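Title: Comparing notes on inverse folding

I've been comparing how different people in this forum approach sequence design from structure. To keep things fair, I'm posting one structure and asking everyone to reply with a full sequence. Here's the target:
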């Protein structure tokens, strides 16, 4: 099995190559610059900024998001969401579970393809799932450019997304945890795999700084999630648990198709003095985290859970589902429990509010600093490029 848990230590042989040659890397995500809250979009931007120290890097984006980005003409999913649900259009796309994403993939395919053919890269790094992979595979077929791909969905939907994406044969697959690596290896034993976790910006998310008056009585529990009864977030469990704590408020940051449903449930169980739903820009989120006392997200599955990292970096304890992924992320920076047991879930929130977590949570989040994660990606990128050029054999572990 070609499988690496990449460490942050530098490979001297790779560094010598880095000194000799500055390779060109193309990252792809047509939602970057448009959606500033998605985990894959944030990762694309954070990595592009940091990898620019080692490579010539360009991010093919949906809108301008810095000097490193090149906006491409397309219809990003955020713009397409309401259009594909119009009564005249919805019947035409009903067979797709997420038609707005399909539209983004279709409209961005040729602009990205043409850009990469006219401005060749040494490696393509798509972040927009199968749409970016399909485009990159076409470029590879024409030019031989290798593909690095991070599976953002991990084992969600029983690994179906991963199974589909492996059909594109990325030259190097990055997964967020060992369980996903083992699953991918069983599906395709010859697939080169590296395990690299997600990251957090420790300069933006800090315990110190300005706060926001959320209009609720303290202490306040925060839940950041998309608001849909069909997704895996289970926001209703957070509402029900906090409702059992008469002196605790719940603030939900998010939006979605079922926002009205969750607003009504919160108003009924907690009342307007203890419950609110609002949306904020990604730039405002550090202030939101600093304005509350505990973070909770009782989702069934999380591919990684960037919001947990942001909360811990802000000094907050975390209350979440007790599973392998969150044991790894949260560690001793909160309480994990069976969130479907409301007695257990409620007690966990109450106990975190009586503890002192800020220093430990911040130290735990530092394990996932984007600066460290970018070094791991730098090494993987160099190895993948050099393997494609037959300059350096990939190590096997």
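Reply #1:
Here's my take.
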């Amino acid at each position: 099995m070609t499988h690496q848990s990449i460490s942050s230590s530098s490979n001297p042989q790779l560094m010598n190559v880095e000194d000799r040659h500055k390779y060109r890397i193309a990252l792809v995500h047509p939602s970057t610059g448009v959606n500033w809250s998605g985990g894959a979009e944030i990762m694309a931007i954070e990595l592009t900024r940091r990898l620019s120290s080692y490579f010539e890097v360009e991010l093919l984006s949906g809108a301008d998001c810095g000097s490193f980005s090149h906006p491409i003409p397309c219809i990003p999913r955020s713009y397409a969401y309401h259009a594909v649900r119009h009564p005249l259009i919805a019947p035409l796309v009903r067979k797709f579970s997420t038609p707005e994403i399909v539209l983004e993939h279709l409209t961005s395919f040729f602009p990205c393809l043409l850009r990469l053919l006219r401005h060749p890269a040494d490696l393509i790094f798509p972040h927009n799932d199968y749409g970016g992979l399909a485009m990159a595979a076409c470029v590879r077929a024409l030019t031989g450019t290798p593909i690095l791909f991070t599976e953002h969905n991990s084992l969600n939907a029983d690994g179906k997304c991963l199974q589909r994406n492996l059909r594109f044969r990325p030259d190097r697959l990055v997964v967020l945890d060992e369980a996903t690596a083992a699953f991918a290896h069983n599906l395709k034993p010859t697939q080169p795999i590296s395990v690299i976790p997600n990251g957090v910006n420790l300069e933006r998310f800090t315990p110190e700084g300005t706060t926001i008056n959320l209009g609720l009585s303290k202490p306040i529990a925060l839940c950041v999630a998309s608001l849909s009864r069909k997704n895996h977030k289970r926001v209703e469990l957070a509402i029900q648990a906090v409702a059992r704590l008469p002196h605790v408020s719940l603030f939900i940051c998010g939006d979605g198709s079922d926002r009205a449903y969750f607003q009504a449930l919160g108003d009924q169980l907690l009342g307007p003095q203890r419950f609110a739903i609002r949306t904020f820009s990604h730039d405002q989120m550090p202030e939101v985290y600093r304005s509350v006392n505990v973070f909770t997200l009782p989702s069934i599955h999380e591919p990684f859970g960037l919001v947990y990292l942001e909360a811990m970096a802000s000094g907050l304890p975390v209350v979440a589902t007790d599973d392998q992924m969150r044991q790894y992320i949260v560690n001793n920076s909160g309480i994990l429990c069976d969130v479907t047991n409301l007695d257990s879930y409620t007690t966990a929130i109450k106990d975190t509010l009586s503890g002192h977590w800020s220093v430990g949570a911040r130290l735990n989040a530092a394990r996932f600093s984007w600066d460290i994660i970018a070094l791991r990606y730098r090494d993987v990128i160099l190895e993948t490029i050099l393997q494609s050029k037959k300059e350096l054999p990939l190590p096997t572990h």
